[in-house]
Amino acid sequence: LVATIELQVQPAQEGLWTVVQWEDSNGDWHDVEGWRGHLDEKGKKMWQVAEKDFGTGPFRWVLYQGQGGLELGASDPFFLPRQANEVVLVVLSL
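User: That's the sequence. What structure does it adopt?
Assistant: Structure tokens below.
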């Protein structure tokens, strides 16, 4: 059983680098290993979420000019999907 998180950047810009981060109890953000990569040609990035992680959070998407590049922005915090086949859509406007 899986669900999905999806980032849509507007306006769409191909090739920007994105990382998903999780927030700890002290309010500090940490990169999620494996949930990082370039946006596709439509300005989107999607990751599958395992059932054991359903409903956890908060998380956020962080957008960079490129891998190791300047931070362009971060999304509002969100929680992972709560059930199979659910999609949590996050829109980040630049």
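The mean pLDDT is 96.
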